[in-house]
Amino acid sequence: MAHAKARRSAVVKSRGGPGSLTREFFTDGTLRSVGRVANGNKTGLWKTYHRNGNLWAAGRFEHGACVGLWKWYADNGALRQVGRFEGGKQVGLWRRYYGGTGVLYDEGRYVAGKKTGLWKVYDKRGRLTRTKRYR
Question: What is the Cα–Cα distance from 87 to 68, expressed in whole angstroms?
């Protein structure tokens, strides 16, 4: 999930010295994200927040690229999406959930940022409604 345009346009950055924590704020002063920057790139664990202060996303960066396990949350704290990155590309099993409910919406695998294999889609009651195969 990429940042919405409104999220980006409302950011004011506050940075310490090299390798120190970097905090990004919405224009109203509410914390938007926190993490470290090295050589101009995000690195290590970063957390991004909704305007209400609840966690929106958490994951790691290496040399500015997303790596490892990432999780995204609805503004009420319910899980919205979970998956892994390697070198900034989606890999392995990914799951998305209906916004704010925690009920599984779809699941499937990525290879080098592309959907592959069988993807399953569920209704809001958790029942399988359709499948699609990707090559």
Answer: 9
Residue-number span of the structural domain to which 118 is assigned: 5-134
| CATH number of the structural domain spanning residue 119 | 3.90.930
- Show Cβ contacts of residue 2 under 8 Å, excluding neighbours closer than 6 positions: none
85 and 93 Cβ atoms separated by less than 8 Å? no
- Are residues 31 and 46 in contact, defined by beta-carbon separation less than 8 angstroms? no
> 19: alpha, beta or left, given left = phi > 0 and alpha = psi -120 to 50?
left
Residue in the structure block whose two tokens are 């990432």: 70
Q: Provide the number of structural domains found in the chain.
A: 1
96-108 pLDDT, tens per residue? 999 889 899 999 9
